[in-house]
Design a protein that fits this description.
By secondary structure, this protein is of the alpha+beta class. The chain is built from twelve helices and 14 strands. Helix 7 packs across helix 11 and helix 8 runs antiparallel to helix 9.
């Protein structure tokens, strides 16, 4: 066992005590896939029942359950073939496989399929910060409406403003038809420092109205984990999106805004910001399953 992570076939639920070993490993990996950050795994551990195991030769695997169906993920590479087979036999399917992993798994005889609902959306930070040109005309108009109509202020989302951000999250939950990522966002705001998350909070007419929260995913990409707004302020979220992109360091050429999960409305919203690409993910399973 290493830092509370047992050897396969034993698994241990993701805990904050695992961060000292997992966070540096993810950073060294320089992942493109949004799931592969410690903060993401920790904050969504309840939804996906994430657990960790060492799958031979020190290779850490992530296990979980979605809708009653178990799965595993291998962010740090594929293990030896015999152990890989045991993982498939126990968990049935692999999620978040990269394109190179999918090619190797197909060569080994596993069935591969694209997981479009979980593709991460990638945007140009510069484009989102400027909203120039015809393709962003409607977005820029909404930002202009917001700026012209309301008194507003944006601040870095420091711990001293966490209560204000939590009030936005509570207001969002009251307005939302489904709980969505409310619990994960709440915990993220309470543990920003421990998880090394950063973001911005926005006030309209002196009242907290929106926040955004994310982290560096790799040296050239920033991932947005949460973005929420409340109140009937036309153009608020478009302004938040543009404003936060504008203050991100230039080294982040890309902003990863995660997946649409197959939600048609969310897909249309994400596509309306004209992604410059996607992080493609694949599923793998035993033949015939």
């Amino acid at each position: 066992m290493t830092n509370n992570i047992p050897e396969f076939p034993e698994c241990a639920p993701v805990s904050l005590e695992m961060r000292p070993i997992l966070h540096p490993l993810f950073k060294a990996l320089s992942p493109e896939i949004s799931e592969f950050s410690f903060a993401n795994l920790y904050l969504f551990r309840g939804v996906h029942r994430y657990a960790m195991t060492i799958a031979g030769d020190g290779l850490i695997a992530i296990t979980g359950i979605d809708s009653g169906a178990p799965f595993f993920m291998l962010p740090f590479g594929l293990p030896r073939e015999a152990l890989l087979k045991r993982l498939f036999q126990r968990f049935g399917r692999m999620k978040a496989a990269t394109a190179p992993q999918a090619g190797e798994l197909q060569r080994l005889g596993y069935e591969i399929s694209e997981d479009r609902d979980n593709f991460d959306y990638l945007y140009s930070r510069e484009e989102l910060s400027k909203l120039s040109g015809r393709k962003f005309h409607r977005k820029k108009n909404l930002v202009n409406v917001f700026v012209g109509k309301y008194g507003f202020e944006g601040r870095p989302l420091l711990a001293e403003y966490a209560e204000d951000a939590l009030s936005v999250n509570e207001g969002w939950r009251r307005e939302a038809a489904f709980p969505g990522d409310y619990e994960a966002a709440k915990e993220a705001l309470l543990k920003m420092d421990a998880l090394q998350l950063c973001g911005g909070i926005y006030y309209v007419e002196g009242r907290p109205a929106a926040f955004t929260l994310g982290e560096e995913l790799n040296p050239s990409a920033f991932v947005i984990h949460f973005e929420k707004g409340i109140g009937d302020y036309k153009g608020l979220l478009q302004f938040v999106n543009q404003s936060f992109a504008a203050i991100l360091p230039e080294k982040y050429g890309l902003i990863n805004r995660e997946q649409d999960l197959g939600d048609e409305g969310l897909r249309q919203a994400k596509e309306s910001y004209k992604p410059v690409g996607f992080v493609r993910k694949f599923r793998a399973s035993l033949p015939g399953q």
